[in-house]
Amino acid sequence: MAKLYFRYSTMNAGKSIDLLRCNHNYIENGKKTMCFTSSKDDRFGVGKITSRIGLSIDALAINDNMDIFNVVSKESNISCVFVDESQFLNKKHIFQLSDIVDKLDIPVICYGIRSDFQMEPFEGSMYLMTISDSIEEIKTICTICHKKKAIVNARVIGDKVITEGNQVEIGDKLYQPMCRKCFNKLK
What we know:
Layout: E1 4-9, H1 15-28, E2 32-38, E3 48-50, E4 56-58, E5 60-62, H2 68-73, E6 78-84, H3 91-104, E7 108-113, H4 123-131, E8 134-137, E9 152-157, E10 160-162, E11 175-178, H5 180-186
Parallel strand pairs: 1-7, 1-8, 2-5, 2-6, 6-7
Antiparallel strand pairs: 3-4, 9-10, 9-11
Protein backbone atom coordinates (compact mmCIF):
# COMPACT_ATOMS: atom_id res chain seq x y z
CA MET A 1 0.00 0.00 0.00
CA ALA A 2 1.44 3.36 -1.09
CA LYS A 3 2.07 6.15 1.43
CA LEU A 4 2.78 9.87 1.48
CA TYR A 5 6.07 10.47 3.29
CA PHE A 6 7.46 13.77 4.57
CA ARG A 7 11.13 13.84 5.52
CA TYR A 8 12.08 17.20 6.96
CA SER A 9 14.99 18.91 8.65
CA THR A 10 16.79 22.20 8.87
CA MET A 11 19.09 23.42 6.12
CA ASN A 12 22.34 21.50 5.61
CA ALA A 13 21.12 18.20 7.06
CA GLY A 14 21.41 15.97 3.97
CA LYS A 15 17.85 15.94 2.61
CA SER A 16 18.85 16.11 -1.06
CA ILE A 17 21.54 13.44 -0.75
CA ASP A 18 18.99 11.18 0.96
CA LEU A 19 16.54 11.76 -1.90
CA LEU A 20 19.26 11.01 -4.47
CA ARG A 21 20.25 7.85 -2.57
CA CYS A 22 16.67 6.56 -2.36
CA ASN A 23 15.99 7.37 -6.01
CA HIS A 24 19.18 5.56 -7.02
CA ASN A 25 18.10 2.47 -5.07
CA TYR A 26 14.82 2.31 -7.02
CA ILE A 27 16.60 2.72 -10.35
CA GLU A 28 19.27 0.12 -9.46
CA ASN A 29 16.43 -2.33 -8.85
CA GLY A 30 14.93 -1.72 -12.29
CA LYS A 31 12.18 0.62 -11.08
CA LYS A 32 11.02 3.79 -12.79
CA THR A 33 10.77 6.98 -10.72
CA MET A 34 9.75 10.58 -11.24
CA CYS A 35 11.59 13.41 -9.50
CA PHE A 36 10.26 16.90 -8.90
CA THR A 37 11.57 20.05 -7.26
CA SER A 38 10.22 23.54 -6.78
CA SER A 39 10.91 26.02 -9.56
CA LYS A 40 11.67 28.53 -6.79
CA ASP A 41 14.94 26.76 -5.97
CA ASP A 42 17.29 27.94 -8.70
CA ARG A 43 20.60 27.63 -6.81
CA PHE A 44 21.96 25.04 -9.24
CA GLY A 45 19.54 25.73 -12.11
CA VAL A 46 15.77 25.27 -12.30
CA GLY A 47 14.79 21.61 -12.40
CA LYS A 48 17.92 20.30 -10.69
CA ILE A 49 18.15 18.33 -7.45
CA THR A 50 21.70 18.87 -6.25
CA SER A 51 23.41 17.85 -3.03
CA ARG A 52 26.12 19.92 -1.42
CA ILE A 53 28.59 17.11 -2.11
CA GLY A 54 28.04 17.60 -5.84
CA LEU A 55 25.69 14.81 -6.88
CA SER A 56 22.83 15.97 -9.08
CA ILE A 57 19.89 14.78 -11.18
CA ASP A 58 17.41 16.49 -13.46
CA ALA A 59 13.89 16.88 -12.13
CA LEU A 60 10.59 18.37 -13.24
CA ALA A 61 10.24 21.91 -11.90
CA ILE A 62 6.96 22.56 -10.08
CA ASN A 63 5.52 26.04 -10.57
CA ASP A 64 2.43 27.41 -8.84
CA ASN A 65 0.11 26.31 -11.68
CA MET A 66 1.41 22.78 -12.27
CA ASP A 67 -0.98 19.88 -11.74
CA ILE A 68 1.42 17.25 -10.39
CA PHE A 69 -1.25 14.54 -10.34
CA ASN A 70 -1.97 15.10 -14.04
CA VAL A 71 1.74 14.93 -14.94
CA VAL A 72 2.29 11.66 -13.03
CA SER A 73 -0.96 10.04 -14.22
CA LYS A 74 0.21 10.35 -17.85
CA GLU A 75 3.26 8.16 -17.16
CA SER A 76 3.25 4.39 -16.88
CA ASN A 77 4.99 2.00 -14.49
CA ILE A 78 6.07 4.64 -11.98
CA SER A 79 7.28 2.97 -8.78
CA CYS A 80 7.90 6.11 -6.70
CA VAL A 81 7.63 9.89 -6.88
CA PHE A 82 10.28 12.04 -5.16
CA VAL A 83 9.83 15.72 -4.35
CA ASP A 84 12.64 18.01 -3.18
CA GLU A 85 12.10 21.49 -1.66
CA SER A 86 8.50 20.56 -0.83
CA GLN A 87 8.18 23.47 1.60
CA PHE A 88 7.74 25.75 -1.44
CA LEU A 89 4.66 23.87 -2.70
CA ASN A 90 1.16 25.17 -2.09
CA LYS A 91 -1.81 23.46 -0.48
CA LYS A 92 -3.18 22.40 -3.88
CA HIS A 93 0.09 20.63 -4.72
CA ILE A 94 0.14 18.72 -1.43
CA PHE A 95 -3.34 17.36 -2.06
CA GLN A 96 -2.32 16.43 -5.63
CA LEU A 97 0.54 14.42 -4.11
CA SER A 98 -1.85 12.66 -1.74
CA ASP A 99 -4.08 11.85 -4.75
CA ILE A 100 -1.07 10.22 -6.46
CA VAL A 101 -0.78 7.97 -3.40
CA ASP A 102 -4.50 7.30 -2.94
CA LYS A 103 -5.72 7.10 -6.55
CA LEU A 104 -2.64 5.86 -8.43
CA ASP A 105 -1.21 3.74 -5.57
CA ILE A 106 2.27 5.25 -6.05
CA PRO A 107 4.37 6.17 -3.00
CA VAL A 108 5.42 9.82 -2.77
CA ILE A 109 8.45 10.85 -0.72
CA CYS A 110 8.76 14.58 -0.03
CA TYR A 111 11.81 16.35 1.37
CA GLY A 112 11.80 19.85 2.78
CA ILE A 113 12.23 22.15 5.71
CA ARG A 114 9.48 22.66 8.25
CA SER A 115 9.80 26.37 8.98
CA ASP A 116 11.45 29.55 7.79
CA PHE A 117 14.05 31.79 9.44
CA GLN A 118 11.37 33.38 11.65
CA MET A 119 10.17 29.97 12.85
CA GLU A 120 6.97 30.33 10.79
CA PRO A 121 5.70 27.27 8.90
CA PHE A 122 5.88 27.03 5.13
CA GLU A 123 2.53 26.28 3.47
CA GLY A 124 3.74 23.08 1.82
CA SER A 125 5.32 21.77 5.02
CA MET A 126 2.29 22.67 7.11
CA TYR A 127 0.00 20.57 4.91
CA LEU A 128 2.52 17.74 4.63
CA MET A 129 2.74 17.65 8.45
CA THR A 130 -1.05 17.47 8.51
CA ILE A 131 -1.82 14.77 5.93
CA SER A 132 1.32 12.63 5.50
CA ASP A 133 1.12 8.96 6.37
CA SER A 134 4.68 9.04 7.68
CA ILE A 135 6.76 11.95 9.01
CA GLU A 136 10.48 11.56 9.63
CA GLU A 137 12.96 14.11 10.92
CA ILE A 138 16.47 14.12 9.47
CA LYS A 139 18.56 15.53 12.29
CA THR A 140 21.61 17.76 12.35
CA ILE A 141 23.35 19.68 15.13
CA CYS A 142 23.49 23.38 15.89
CA THR A 143 26.32 25.17 14.08
CA ILE A 144 26.87 27.43 17.13
CA CYS A 145 26.94 25.22 20.25
CA HIS A 146 27.52 21.91 18.43
CA LYS A 147 25.56 20.19 21.22
CA LYS A 148 21.85 20.46 20.60
CA LYS A 149 19.68 19.37 17.71
CA ALA A 150 19.17 22.16 15.18
CA ILE A 151 15.53 23.13 14.66
CA VAL A 152 15.87 26.71 13.34
CA ASN A 153 16.93 27.76 9.84
CA ALA A 154 18.67 30.96 10.93
CA ARG A 155 19.24 33.55 8.22
CA VAL A 156 22.70 34.96 8.81
CA ILE A 157 24.52 37.80 7.08
CA GLY A 158 28.08 38.16 8.28
CA ASP A 159 27.84 37.40 12.00
CA LYS A 160 24.33 38.81 12.36
CA VAL A 161 21.14 36.76 12.62
CA ILE A 162 18.45 38.39 10.49
CA THR A 163 14.86 38.27 11.78
CA GLU A 164 13.03 40.35 9.16
CA GLY A 165 12.54 40.05 5.42
CA ASN A 166 10.82 37.94 2.78
CA GLN A 167 9.98 34.39 3.76
CA VAL A 168 11.87 32.99 0.77
CA GLU A 169 15.45 33.98 0.03
CA ILE A 170 17.33 31.34 -1.94
CA GLY A 171 20.97 30.75 -1.11
CA ASP A 172 23.06 28.17 0.72
CA LYS A 173 25.33 30.72 2.37
CA LEU A 174 22.41 32.64 3.90
CA TYR A 175 21.34 29.99 6.41
CA GLN A 176 22.77 28.14 9.37
CA PRO A 177 21.01 25.37 11.30
CA MET A 178 20.75 26.34 14.97
CA CYS A 179 19.11 25.15 18.13
CA ARG A 180 16.38 27.43 19.48
CA LYS A 181 18.54 28.53 22.43
CA CYS A 182 21.44 29.74 20.27
CA PHE A 183 19.05 31.37 17.80
CA ASN A 184 17.29 33.31 20.55
CA LYS A 185 20.63 34.32 22.05
CA LEU A 186 21.91 35.69 18.72
CA LYS A 187 18.81 37.42 17.36
